Amino acid sequence: MHSHIKKVLVNFNLATQISVLVYSYERDLLLSLPGKINSDSFLILTKDIVFPQNNNYRNYIFHNDSYISLIDLGIEQKKIIILGQTEFSQQSNDFNSSFPNIMLKKFQSVSNLVYYSIFFKWPSQTEPIHLSDSLLDGESYNSLDNRRLEKNFHNNYLFEKSMLKTIERGQNDKFPQALHAYMESGSPGEMNYSNALRNNKDLAIAALTIFTRAAIKGGIPAEGALSLSDNISQNIEKLTEITDIEDLILKIGMLFIERVQNTQKASTTNPVVYSVINYIYQHLNSKIKISDIAVKLNYSPNYISKIFKKETNKTITQYINDQKIQEVKSQLAYTDKTISQISEDLGFSDQGYLTRLFKKSTGVSPFFFRQEHSI
Questions:
Q1: How many domains does one find in the chain?
Q2: Which of 25, 45, 56, 190 sits at a 20 to 30 Å CA gap from 169?
Q3: DSSP assignment of 69-113, as one string?
Q4: What is the pTM of this model?
Q5: Of 96, 117, 150, which closes a domain?
Q6: Which structural domain, as residue segments, surrounds residue 337?
């Protein structure tokens, strides 16, 4: 998926708390950005809907005034975006709207904005399609009832919220326990009932997307969080087996927490220092010079160096190296790039310098780190 589209969807989700799903034409779940309520119902509602094609756009209204929109990204990308959110009531077999005061016209308006942000044109206005609860009869309900009897109900939302708070706050000591409690609170859900590997990949990607949001809330610039998310997502798709889904999700979460911790150590309200940090995140994959930062921000190199050191207790060069080492860690763990390729991509003068810097920071060589942390 194009990075521009992913940024549009992440920011839309953050701003509205409306759920976002992205499917391939084969109905593999590629991206999941949950709304305020974590529920099976969104997947069930869309299960039997025929996907539009040729950049088509549709709005649906369900029997309880819940709304979803489908946007086709076209034959080149072969992906469908679904916007919307509902909550399945555990007390009764009906679906309750969970939109916070978003009525149909408002929902159509924000959906139109998403369409425009992707295609740079407004969608052709069509009347929403009304769907009765007949879509939800029979097998879908029976399947959900069976899973409930087997205690495969979705994780308690409070456990999820508690878990995400540990990422947002950079609490690496509390995250493993919070994750385990979340996993133990119920089955993490099934997104692909017929393929265990595909299901585990979907669960890992779903966890990745909510961890990305939590990390951004924790202070990581969106550029850095989304770049890390893309690297991890690509490597998840390459996996040929996943023997322990909780362990995989734990590794992903800890990597984000480490980034949050580093960001919070350098947290500042000074706009100059914040701009320096943002520039560094945007240019991690190149050689960063203090003189270039100074030109970009229209300050002298001495001024930004002095104020950065005063605010963060680190030199700009130290901070750059720290962030590059974090990026090296993620690429060692979640890509199959050689150490030489990583060194070149991140703008190091040579592989030997990267190795020395990495060992000084972590106590181990890049090769050993990859052996221990590669998924």
A1: 2
A2: 190
A3: EEEE--TTTTEEEEEE-EEE-SSSSSEEE--SS--HHHHHHHHHH
A4: 0.53
A5: 150
A6: 266-373
- Tell me if 87 sits within 8 A of 40, measured CB to CB: no
> Does residue 308 sit within a domain?
yes
Instruction: Tell me which long-range contacts 332-337 makes (C-beta under 8 A, separation of at least 24).
Output: 332/366, 332/369, 332/370, 332/373, 332/374, 333/251, 333/255, 333/369, 333/370, 333/373, 333/374, 333/375, 334/231, 334/232, 334/234, 334/235, 334/255, 334/374, 334/375, 335/231, 335/234, 335/235, 336/235, 336/238
Confidence of residue 106 (pLDDT cuts 50, 70, 90): confident
Do 146 and 11 sit in the same domain of this protein?
yes
Is pLDDT of 270 > 50?
A: yes
For residues 62 and 86, the answer to whether their CB atoms sit within 8 Å is: yes
Report if residue 326 sits inside a domain: yes
Residue 56 lies in a domain: yes
The last residue of one of the domains, among 94, 119, 150, is: 150
- Give me the numbers of helices (H) and strands (E) for the chain, helices first please: 16, 8
CATH number at residue 108: 3.30.450
Q: What is the pLDDT of residues 118-135, one digit of tens each?
A: 888 887 766 666 654 434
DSSP string, 186-215: S----S-TT-HHHHHHHHHHHHHHHHHHHH
Q: Name 21's bridge partners.
A: 32, 82
CA–CA gap between residue 37 and residue 100 (Å, rounded): 11
Structure tokens at 227: 């770049």
